[in-house]
């Protein structure tokens, strides 16, 4: 079977599955409050060294830390900041540079009562992967990431996700062909 035939066969299967699928998110599933999705925030002070913040990302296995001053959210520092502002750049000794130099100041935030649909829209429009959840005094109380949202969706639609074809066409072509 040629590569093009394999692609066409997989696409036909996917089209058929879409026709058969009647599952959609109900309003109560998409309007769930962020309180039920959020995880405890990992925070650092503004004067924390950038190296300490990076080490915390690794040890806590999170994609972003919240930067605070007197427990008030001032910024967010994450993996993208490392890629954009630090990696392959001559920035100096990261143990001596405060994280506030590389953080994104005044990040977009949400509240615990805001809903999942609002967070998804904000993330899509703003290109965010993390949204800090704050209280009325702008104190961080949680964090919602795209990973949390995907986990929520998998938990609510396991049948649809876990029954996907086991070997999509992309994985069928492991060995390279040609000269």
Task: Tell me about this structure.
- This protein is an alpha+beta fold.
- The chain has one domain: CBS-domain, CATH 3.10.580.
- It is 40% helix and 16% strand.
- The protein contains eight helices and six strands, in the order H-H-E-H-E-E-H-E-H-E-E-H-H-H.
- Strands 1-2-3-4 form a four-stranded mixed sheet. A two-stranded antiparallel ribbon has the order 5-6.
- The protein is flat, with a radius of gyration of 21 Å.
- The model has no long low-confidence stretch (mean pLDDT 86).
List the helices and strands and how they pair.
Layout (H helix, E strand, L loop, with lengths): L2 H18 L6 H4 L12 E3 L4 H11 L3 E6 L2 E7 H8 L17 E2 L10 H11 L3 E5 L5 E6 H11 L1 H5 L6 H4 L7
Parallel strand pairs: 1-2
Antiparallel strand pairs: 2-3, 3-4, 5-6
Annotation keywords:
alpha+beta, two-stranded antiparallel sheet, CBS-domain, 179 residues
How would you summarize what this structure contains?
The protein has eight helices and six strands, in the order ααβαββαβαββααα. It is α+β, with helices and mostly antiparallel strands and 179 residues long.
Largest sheet: 4 strands, mixed
Number of domains: 1
Distance between the termini: 20 Å
The name CATH uses for the topology is: CBS-domain
**Element string (H = helix, E = strand):** HHEHEEHEHEEHHH
Could you tell me the mean pLDDT? 86
Rounded to an integer in angstroms, the radius of gyration calculated over CA atoms is: 21 Å
* Uncertain residue segments: none
* Assigned CATH architecture: Roll
Into which percentage range does the β-strand content fall? 15-25%
């Amino acid at each position: 079977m040629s590569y093009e035939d394999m692609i066409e066969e997989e696409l036909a299967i996917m089209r058929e599955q879409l026709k058969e699928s009647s599952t959609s998110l109900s309003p109560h599933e998409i309007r769930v409050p962020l309180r039920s999705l959020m995880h405890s925030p990992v925070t650092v002070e503004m004067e924390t060294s950038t190296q300490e913040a990076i080490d915390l990302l690794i040890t806590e296995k999170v994609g972003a830390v919240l930067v605070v001053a007197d427990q008030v959210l001032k910024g967010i520092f994450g993996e993208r900041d490392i890629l954009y502002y630090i990696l392959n750049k001559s920035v100096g000794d990261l143990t001596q540079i405060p994280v506030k130099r590389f953080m994104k100041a005044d990040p977009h935030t949400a509240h615990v009562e805001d809903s999942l649909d609002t967070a998804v829209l904000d993330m899509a429009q703003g290109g965010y992967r993390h949204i800090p959840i704050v209280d009325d005094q702008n104190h961080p109380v949680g964090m919602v990431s795209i990973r949390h949202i995907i986990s929520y969706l998998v938990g609510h639609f396991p049948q649809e996700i876990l029954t996907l074809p086991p070997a999509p066409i992309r994985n069928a072509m492991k060995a390279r062909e040609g000269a």
